[in-house]
């Protein structure tokens, strides 16, 4: 039996609505949703093993030494990593895998697994990202501003992804993401308008960066 399982790597700056889009798109699809490890403290409502595996610095370093990560990186003073074995096991079993990680880790994955599909989710502007983060009110102002600064760096790397989806209006963003997901599975070209080699996508990314 042919194994057509795909690895999807999703990135977006904080405040771009990535989690909401993914929860909608994959609500009724049997995929393995990889749970990353992190050394940061849990936010209110987050559960260990559900949202993240929350590790100490020592535990994280031990996993690195044991080659237990598919990728790992430091982001806003904390470490994040993707446990390797559950991803490989799921793909081998014919189950699509979804990784929700930042750009540095995404490029590590692409280097090791070129067949991975990289999708970047954008907000309409860096200014809008700042507004959404302050509205969320889960972090101090200094942390938010650090995330906003990091957002610009991440968005500038979006052209190295395979596809870009804009989250300006949620329902449309969900529909666009579903189109990309199905096209990546079928290879039918129906999501070519979201590919990063198109002039429209290049201009869209530049506009987001300019509206800081």
Gyration radius, to the nearest Å? 17 Å
Structural class of the helix and strand makeup?
alpha/beta
What name goes with the CATH superfamily of the domain at 7-34 and 96-210?
P-loop containing nucleotide triphosphate hydrolases
User: What's the overall average pLDDT, rounded?
Assistant: 89
Number of strands: 9
Based on CA inertia axes, which overall geometry fits?
globular
CATH class term of the domain at 7-34 and 96-210: Alpha Beta
**CATH fold label of the domain at 7-34 and 96-210:** Rossmann fold
Proportion of strand residues = 15-25%
What is the H/E string? Answer: EHEEEHEEHEHEHHEHH
- Uncertain segments: none
Q: Quickly give the CATH architecture of the domain at 7-34 and 96-210.
A: 3-Layer(aba) Sandwich
């Amino acid at each position: 039996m042919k194994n057509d399982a795909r690895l999807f790597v999703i990135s977006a700056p904080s405040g771009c609505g990535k989690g909401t889009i993914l929860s909608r798109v994959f609500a009724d699809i049997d995929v393995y949703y990889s749970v990353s490890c992190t050394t940061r403290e849990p936010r209110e409502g987050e559960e260990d093993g559900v949202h993240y595996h929350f590790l100490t610095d020592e535990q994280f370093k031990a996993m690195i030494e044991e080659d237990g990560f598919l990728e790992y990186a430091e982001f806003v003073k904390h470490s994040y990593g993707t446990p390797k074995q559950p991803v490989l096991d799921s793909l081998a079993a014919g189950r699509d895998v979804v990784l929700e990680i930042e750009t540095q880790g995404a490029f590590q994955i692409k280097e090791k697994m070129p067949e991975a599909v990289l999708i970047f989710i954008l907000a309409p502007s860096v200014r809008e990202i700042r507004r959404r983060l302050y509205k969320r009110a889960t972090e101090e102002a200094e942390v938010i501003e650090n995330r906003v600064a990091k957002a610009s760096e991440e968005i500038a790397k979006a052209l190295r992804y395979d596809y870009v989806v804009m989250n300006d209006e949620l329902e449309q963003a969900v529909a666009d993401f579903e189109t990309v997901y199905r096209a990546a599975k079928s290879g039918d070209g129906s999501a070519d308008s979201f590919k990063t080699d198109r002039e429209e996508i290049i201009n869209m990314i530049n506009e987001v960066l300019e509206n800081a």
